[in-house]
Amino acid sequence: MTRLTRRHTLGLLGGTAAAACSPAISTSQLSDDPFEGGIGGTGIVGLMTGSGSVLVNGLRVEVTSSTRIFSANKRTNDTLLVPGRTLTMLARARLGRFEAQRIDIDDPLTGVLLRQGSGYSVNSTPVVETAGVAVLVGERVTVSGIWQADGSVQTSLMQRAPGKADSISGVLEGSAAAGWSIGQTPVAPPRGQSLIAGQFVVAKGQFTHGTLQATSLRFGRFREGGNILRQLSVEGYLEQVAGAPGFRLAGLGHSFDQRLQLGGFAENRAVYFGPYTGRFVARRAVLVPEAQGQRASLLRPANGKSSAASLSGERARAVPTR
Question: Which of 192, 253, 262, 275 is the most buried (most CB within 10 A)?
């Protein structure tokens, strides 16, 4: 198994500003275990960076005959597990390795790729494209990647999509009176469906007249195992919010413990590690580069290793608490 990192920007206050200048934590100050405190059920949310098992967030996770793999909430197989894919994984530690119990492929966007200004969008949400995307304009695609604080998706993989359904997976914003959205996509829920802002939602339906007309909604990132989830590893960017600790993971719906001081990471893309207690008590952040090839190289465990050296190396930083 193996482990990984994340980013974003906005105003910093008080001790948070001091954290921004804190130096990298040396290997002697951080143990080799990024979770620092044992592993129960482990939730992993990030982008697949390599094969030979599943490499994600700097962790090597074994896929066994008992691993259940889902795409769009339908059972599938490991042929969809390719580098760049957005994964949500429930894993366990067994005999010194990580084994995947369930893997959900949660592509942020599925819909028709269109030109938007000088860039591109899917379901009106901008996508920061990968090379060669222009040939797919006008076609229905699936977009893998991670959400940014401005409601766009930093793309890691784009492929032609089967079927005719459109979808979006992310954090719901708005209200019944003002209207709902995920990212920059307006969403109209099914009639009679009650919603709560801040929920992670997978909305499926048809994008028409500027709105995703949802025919089905699925709530929560971890479909099962929530009661045994003890640790998290999540890659992403930070976005600023009003409540303590002032930041959350953009588009992912994992709220941080209120005691954390996260301002020092507001400019960075990172992978975070730590306990989950109903809130994410991140103890370590591993800063990662934007370039996909560089991230994959940094986060690749050595042969026979379950975690990448960078997870306790110069890019690993302790997350301060108040």
Answer: 262
C-alpha to C-alpha distance for 108 and 153, rounded to whole angstroms: 8
230 part of a folded domain: yes
Q: Is residue 4 in a domain?
A: no
Taking alpha carbons only, the member of 50, 28, 103 closest to residue 303 is 50
The answer to whether residues 118 and 142 belong to one domain is yes
pLDDT tens digit sequence for 240-251: 998 899 999 999
Nearest in space to 78 (alpha carbons), one of 45, 44, 103, 98: 103
Statement to judge: residues 120 and 83 lie in one domain? no
Q: Is the pTM of this model over 0.85?
A: yes
Over residues 257-267, the mean pLDDT reads 95
In three-state form (DSSP H/G/I as H, E/B as E, the rest C), the secondary structure along 194-211 is CCCCCCEEEEEEEEECCE
Sign of CA dihedral 77, 83, 86, 87: positive
pLDDT mean over 194-210:
94
